[in-house]
Design brief:
By secondary structure, chain A is mainly alpha-helical. Chain A has 27 helices and 9 strands.
Amino acid sequence: MNQKLLVIFLQPLAMLALAITFTEQVEAQEKLLPSNMPIEKVIDHYIEASWKEKKIKPADAATDTAWIRRISLDLNGRIPTPSEAKTFAEDKDPTKKQKAIDRLIASPLHLRHQAREIETLLMNGTKGNLSEYLTKALNENRTWDRIFKDFILADETDVANKGSSEFLKNRVKDLDKLTNDVSIAFFGVNVSCAQCHDHPLVHDWKQDHFYGMKSFFSRTYEVGNFLAEKEYGVVKFLPNKGKEKQADYMFLTGKTVKPVGMTEPTKDELKKEKEMVEEWKKNKTQPTKPKTSTRAMLVEIALGKSERDFFAKAFVNQLWHRFYGFGLVMPLDQMHSENPPSHPELMNWLAQDFASNNFNIPRLVKGLVSSKVYGLSSRYEGASTPLAKDFAVARLKPLTPMQMGVSLRLAGNNFGGGATSNADLEKKLDNIDNGAKGLADQFVQPSEDFQIGVTEALFFSNSTKFQSECLPEGKDKLVTTMTTMETPEEQADLAVWSVLGRPATSDEKAVIAGYIKKHGANAQDASKQVVWSLMASPEFRFNH
Amino acid sequence: MNKIRKNYCGSTEHAVSRRQFIGSAASGIAGASLFAENALSAELKKQGKSVILLWLAGGASQLETFDPKPGAITGGPFQSIQTSTPGVRISELMPKMAARFKDTCVIRSLNTKNGDHGSASQLMMRGRKDEASLKYPDMGAVLARELGKPESQVPDYVSFYLQSEGRNFSGSGFLGARFGPMELSKSVMPENINKPDHISESDFLDRMALRDLWSKNFETGRSSGTLASHQQAFMRVHGLMESQKLFDVSKEPQKMRDMYGPTQFAEQVLIARRLAESGVPFVRVGRAWWDSHGQNFETHQELVPELDHVMATLLTDLEDRGMLKNTLVVTLSEFGRTPGINSSLGRDHFASAWSCSLSGCGVKGGSIYGKTDEKGEKVIEGEIGAARLFATIYKALGINPQKNYYVGSRPVPLTDPGTEPVQEVLA
């Protein structure tokens, strides 16, 4: 092979591929499992088959307390209360996991957590607040394709979609960024490289795709606080070879459409438009919608039966990554043919299942967390630890800032004493969640290969805010309740249940009891130090 | 028409093979190499090199500092003076630097094409513009990564920024929080660095030991880079708290404090020297209020002599301590100021022909690089942008400017592909 072809030039790694190659891939594969099989069974089937093939011995199943902590963090963004954890561990019902999943999904905290996670996925550092829209949309159980449509159409004249224009508004000043962000968030492909040159690996993947995607947004602009869309407009670009070129309206798969308004408007039309914009500005009114919205055309193409593979796979991969700590395709924005999934059949099955069930989010969530694979321990006793992409041992997932804030507050407020009704518990949890933002702001949103900085450790060690919010004193607070217990061993047990959601081992009890005895001059201070050490431990810092 | 962004397209020099790319993308060890060390980098870390960046926020005027044009219509009221290098003249507002010019190289030919405070600050702190989906680390984060020791008991990136103007443009980008700045924006003492009164020293250590025990238990049968960073962060706490004395300027002899002078800027620069001396690889001292759209000459008459005195004192102090060969002092803004004088007797934002200076480590002292025309309106010799300036700075410190980090499977060099350092500036 020509040496030049073997060499790629640095940038273009985060790149794209063609749906054509995806389709070929599907056809070439053996038949997928039946579509009526439960999601979790399909996951276990494909993953277990790959272990067998690679002769991998998976980790043991996680303990009940580890599992209930994991699922509470994943579905409600918080650790379990000690009584939740205890009740679950003692429950002999063989369907208890399914019941716990149903209970947690039904909780209002699930909606909030889900809204936050999707906001992080879509905004990823870009300013803007999607919570108003997302809370409403998820509460009504809107499907993922509907949510996508709402964000791209950004039509707030319908009150049901209030807040949906935040996604576009905060990006419309930079159409390159908007194009790229939409491609990453909804389709799992990073097109930024095709902005300046064609893909060096996949010959069909060209600058045309980047500018093709950009075209759909090129008619969108801001008028005052509103978004407007022109009736005309094309994108021109300078290819790295040849003369300036007009971009087609082209989706990532190469499919093109021809909207009206591909020619420049006349002077008269321009004048008329200018007057209208002035009028809208002056009256602060919502601009009139165009007869043809090219953004609506994008939505239509992307969700079309033959093109929706990108859309379905990207979300499946992102959700999989959230629960399993590692994507079926990594990195998440490089879903292309040069970078196939670790489990192609599983990916195809899940994407088809998601699409054919109308992109129902809770259904997919429930399926993903119900598998045996999800329930594996994060500790691996064997000699050589399997790779992340084998999913044979649970990944450590650093908590998000809100998970940290809520969980720290939850641990410091003793929920261990006395059973509470479900409604009462929800109310208390709601209060905890509401007040957690300030604490959450002290932490950094984890990214791939996340490195925890010393600022966080200093905050734990020396901040008065940590002291007052995470180790509060008073009736019903953890550190004070500990001092009312009869033996240091009981104190140890309460502390470990409250912070780590599991019983203390006998060794831990002995160590903590020894610590409390040594530092017993001020019982409450000793309790605080013990609780602090547990909160600052990695067992608390990670969802494991 | 769309502009073609040339800034992140490939160079053959740093190509990776297709096999390598696919191998690393598929193996699922994305980013692992971000923190891998090779022998060369380990050796560099041992040399204890540091950078002190004097960041003149708002944009200092090159005409009133390093590139005066007395007599020209754009020149303003100040004269130039002879430096210790024959034939080289700088503004008369900088007599002390003129007298000890021997360690400094002035670059007069920056054309950075961005006159907006925010994005220009980002550009001049990173050496390039962020991509839509990739946030680059700034100079401090890169140097923390390249020069900091993993087990270091001192911070590796400190940023003094007590004034509000031009704050918040730094950041560790894709390198993450581990290499982020210790920001001093409220006082010269870092936040949460002092032990709170409610716990005794021995209890503090005891509870830390208890935490350490839980950590070790948890690590059995588990490993990840993030887990390791968590442990490392707590292991560094005590050392960092010990380093709080470095931030305490009262620990310096009064004679030394008098030498630097009584201003806040001077005090911070003195602390920066204390930090560098103790192995902190990067310290930025932000000095704001250079944005002189009105009364440019009064502003510079006030600010430049302070800069002149503090900078010259710092260089002499570093030299006296034998630190200058390992410490690079950089004075930089986000841009310069217009040669044209506006009706408020001010100078506006100007990025097409401006100056900065490098002194000490790895730099050819007593020299000038680049040249602007008679009125200072454009560069006529040695034009460089942010990328080459950064490549030159990295090279001066012994760091390969084309060294790659890996973001996922994508190699990202320290400076844009193909960027060459300016050899004439280097010793």
